[in-house]
Design a protein that fits this description.
3-stranded antiparallel beta sheet; binds zinc ion; 8 strands; 129 residues; 5-stranded mixed beta barrel
């Protein structure tokens, strides 16, 4: 399957997946938590940050089911979702353990890591229990 192409700014994010950790940036200047990764804080401009692990709890903000092209290693078509995490950031991921017709905006979901190919771990969300 396709793998993320990391840059110096987001390598921590993808490396975290392989440790089953979903990491976001925490600004040293203003304490804001941000995602997606960026070289400096959009709130205060500070370039200092630390990677912090999120709780994995969130709600579905929106979702889509791509039909074409089919994605190798992710068959059938995944439910691609924007998830608002309880930390106040929004992440792009896939939903598992639910039929497309059952997905709703605001659905409570919980992070887990799926091993897809060659031991590669992918963060996904499933309905919270
Ligand atoms: Zn800041």
């Amino acid at each position: 399957m396709l793998r993320p192409v990391a840059t110096d700014d987001d390598r921590f994010y993808f490396d975290g997946w392989q440790q089953s950790r979903l990491l976001v940036q925490h600004c040293r200047g203003c304490e804001a938590v941000r995602h997606p990764p960026s070289p400096s804080c959009p709130s205060c401009g500070d370039a200092g940050w630390d990677a912090v692990e999120v709780s994995g709890r969130g709600v579905v903000y929106s979702y889509v089911i791509p039909r074409k092209p089919s994605l190798r290693g992710l068959l059938p078509s995944p439910i691609v979702a924007l998830v608002d995490l309880s930390e106040g950031v929004r992440v792009l991921s896939n939903l598992v353990g639910i039929e497309p017709a059952e997905v709703s905006f605001g659905l409570a979901v919980q992070l887990e890591f799926l091993t897809v190919e060659d031991g590669f771990r992918l963060p996904v969300f499933r309905p919270a229990r």
